[in-house]
Write a structure and sequence with these properties.
The complex is a heterodimer. Chain A is α/β, with parallel strands linked by helices. Chain A is 35% helix and 6% strand. Chain A has a four-stranded parallel sheet. Chain B has one domain: Rossmann fold (3-Layer(aba) Sandwich). In chain B, helix 1 crosses helix 4. The two termini of chain B are 24 Å apart. The chains are: A alpha/beta, B alpha/beta. At the A-B interface, helix 10, helix 11, helix 12 and helix 13 of A face helix 2 and helix 3 of B.
């Protein structure tokens, strides 16, 4: 199990299967998992190729070390799982592509508000890659398991199937399939921001005007947020085929529900790209155009 | 939807913009037809694709076209209120508002895309629209030049 640039949330969710760990762990021999078992990168590099049955890769490739780790994992693992939305679609770190790398470095290091005379570190840390490309552009994955993070239940289903040697069966439904709220198929009268008014707890949030991208999102979460009263942000990415453009689909969906005059929409939807492609910018069409441009700059 | 880039043209040849034009079946496609039968001259850069209604267009079609190397995209439909399917073009217009901002956020010049309304009798309006986007895109240069 390997982690690139990410928050460890997906592995935390794996650990959150709690008592089930007691049944899962004895069936595993962990060969590499930094922070959990004491193997180093050199150990992973030393294993024979394809000697590890299953590898989980969390996080996005932001540094040269991440890239090396990803390629090493691919070489050593028979089945490589893209684990979590960062690994599948670029996720939140993928939003860094909104700015070019120099702007990112300015904010983070050179003109950081809490540091004076900051500079970009160059010693003892791996170099930062100019642009975030989705992991599957570097290597092929066998399985994609999205989510931010994937729920413990989903992970348990996947791990159990893998241990039995069976294919992982995942339902293709969107979040709406699992949402208990009532739908009346009425158009949106006014698009609301999350802080506007109080939402009716029993009605579809989108029909009330709150932007919920559940209908463009894979429902592997089984409607966690929407049933708790929050709008869906799209963290599971698009439903299968999972490399379709979730943001474009979400825009299409909102346009259908809210055929309002353009000025009104522009007033209320300030950041469509960040809102609809929050987790999938790197794999979207617009993201792909941006990546091509940033790569061209470096040449 | 796959986005394998299409064949690149020889760079030595003089560059002509390639523009994808989505026209709705009931108004603009008929308008384009009328432009042809009325012998109205307009640039040949636009490749017209007929769709039943502009409401059929997901922004994905437009963004995928740009991603695959189209230099510009034109969407032409019935005037708001005149849609054959009552409200298809209103949906297209709402999507367009979001897509236009998104395109700008991604660093693509929004002048590469154009939404226009042209009815079946407005052949001249359609032809003018094609001319305008062709000129705009010619000014901006090939989209691929930003990628190489």
């Amino acid at each position: 199990m390997a982690q690139a640039s990410s928050c460890w949330g997906c592995f935390q969710s794996l650990i959150d299967i709690h008592m089930n760990l007691a049944t899962v762990l004895p069936a595993l021999e962990i060969k590499f998992w930094v922070c959990v078992v004491d193997y180093k990168l050199a150990d992973l590099e030393g294993y024979p190729d394809k000697s590890i049955a299953v590898g989980l890769f969390e996080g996005v490739v932001r540094t040269e070390e991440d890239l090396h780790l990803l390629k090493t994992m691919r070489a050593k693992c028979q089945t490589l799982i893209s684990f979590g939305s960062c690994s599948c679609f670029g996720g939140i770190p993928g939003l860094a592509n909104f700015s070019d790398i120099e702007e990112c470095l300015d904010v983070k290091f050179r003109e950081n508000k809490t540091v004076s005379g900051g500079e970009v570190p160059s010693e003892n840390v791996p170099a930062i890659l100019p642009v975030i490309k989705p992991n599957h552009d570097y290597v092929d994955f066998d399985i994609f398991l999205p989510g931010c993070p994937p729920t413990s239940k989903l992970i348990l289903t996947a791990v159990t199937a893998l241990l039995k040697g069976e294919p992982i069966e995942l339902e293709p439904h969107t979040v709406c399939h699992y949402c208990d709220r009532e739908k009346k198929d009425t158009p949106v009268e006014k698009i609301l921001r999350p802080f506007d008014g109080n939402a009716d707890p029993d009605r579809c949030l989108l029909e009330q005007g709150y932007i919920c991208v559940g209908s463009a999102t894979w429902g592997l979460c089984e409607g966690l947020c929407v049933n708790m009263g929050s709008t869906c942000r799209g963290c599971y990415g698009p439903p299968p085929p999972i490399m379709q453009d979730q943001g474009a689909n979400a825009m299409s969906m909102l346009g259908t529900y809210a055929p309002l005059p353009p000025e009104e929409i522009k007033e209320q939807v300030k950041d469509p790209l960040g809102l609809f492609n929050r987790f999938t910018y790197a794999t979207s069409h617009l993201g792909s155009i941006r990546i091509k441009r940033e790569e061209a700059k470096k040449k | 939807m796959t986005t394998e880039p299409t064949e690149t043209t020889n760079e030595n040849e003089e560059w002509e913009p390639r523009i994808v034009a989505y026209c709705c079946n009931w108004c603009s496609y008929a308008g384009a037809d009328l432009a042809g039968t009325s012998r109205i001259q307009y640039p040949t850069n636009a490749r017209i694709l007929r769709v039943n209604c502009t409401g059929r267009l997901s922004p994905e079609f437009i963004l995928a076209a740009l991603d695959m190397g189209a230099d510009g995209v034109l969407v032409s439909g019935c005037h708001p209120g005149d849609c054959h399917y009552t409200s298809g073009n209103l949906k297209a217009r709402a999507r367009w508002a979001m897509m236009e901002t998104a395109i700008e956020q991604a660093g693509v010049d929004p002048r590469r895309v154009r939404l226009q309304w042209a009815s079946a009798s407005e052949a001249q309006l359609f032809a003018d629209g094609v001319r305008e986007i062709t000129e705009q895109v010619k000014e901006l240069g090939p989209i691929r030049s930003e990628w190489k």
